Amino acid sequence: MQYSYRDNCVVFDDDFVGYSDKCFNVPNKYKQYIDSIIVPNGMIKDRLEKMSVDILETFESNGATSINLLCVLKGGFKFASDLGEKIQSCAVTRGRNISIFMDFIVASTYENDVVGHETQFYPCSNFTSFQDKDVLIVEDLVDTGTTLNKLIAFIKSFKPRSVFVACLLVKRRNDCPGFEPDCKFSFNCLLILNYSHHFFIYFVLTFLFYYQEVYRLLVHKVISN
């Protein structure tokens, strides 16, 4: 049977306009910037719960004794933090003896908000420790997939036992190959189709840098105007 990304992703199709901000608790000072709410906070939390279970079961079935989360900074920090807590909580609840570690890396392919140079990686620790370990790359938003695909190859150069990817958002694009979700490779929280002209804000971090983190307290994923 051919795998469909819809089997383990929450999918929002191109014509989905989202929900009115009147349906949710949104501070008044942010409403002027918001067109609609695509993903309510409750859905994100529930999806993180399911992702943590899937991740734990996959790593255990792979014989892993630890999970080395690799957070892609800066946007992935809050997602990685929340996901790490969920995995740890799930492991404790299930009585699983599996350790959770977190490392960080800065990856850049963008220049002035467009892909403009070769991907550069800036590890925040010595990744030689990944040898024979099980690594989970945690990324918040996958756009073209260029950075993520090169990051996977970069991490594999340290000879880890396995490399998996957890993504909050994957944008499917028609103008480039992108990153194809794979049930054996990625735990995709959400998949947004062709919303390239909008900006999305997750929890306390924003992708819309021009507003200098004006959305810092938002708990929903929204489309800004």
Give a short summary of the structure.
GO terms for molecular function: hypoxanthine phosphoribosyltransferase activity; magnesium ion binding. This protein has one domain: Rossmann fold (3-Layer(aba) Sandwich), CATH 3.40.50.
Using brief descriptors, characterize the structure shown.
single chain, 225 residues, alpha/beta, Rossmann fold, seven-stranded mixed β-sheet, four-stranded antiparallel β-sheet
CATH class: Alpha Beta
Q: Strand sequence of the main sheet, in spatial order?
A: 1-8-7-6-3-4-5
- Radius of gyration, Cα only, in angstroms? 17 Å
In total, how many beta strands?
A: 11
Q: Would you tell me the structural class of the helices and strands?
A: alpha/beta
Helix content: 10-25%
Please name the CATH topology: Rossmann fold
Tell me, briefly, the overall form.
globular
Largest sheet: 7 strands, mixed
**Integer tally of domains:** 1
SSE order in H/E notation?
EHEHEHEEEHEEEEE
Q: Give the low-confidence spans.
A: 181-218
Q: Calculate the terminal CA-CA distance, rounded to whole Å.
A: 41 Å
Mean pLDDT: 74
State the helix count: 4
| Estimated share of beta-strand residues | 25-35%
CATH architecture: 3-Layer(aba) Sandwich
Protein name: Hypoxanthine-guanine phosphoribosyltransferase isoform 3
GO cellular component, one term: cytosol
Transmembrane segments: 190-211
Domain Phosphoribosyltransferase: 44-173
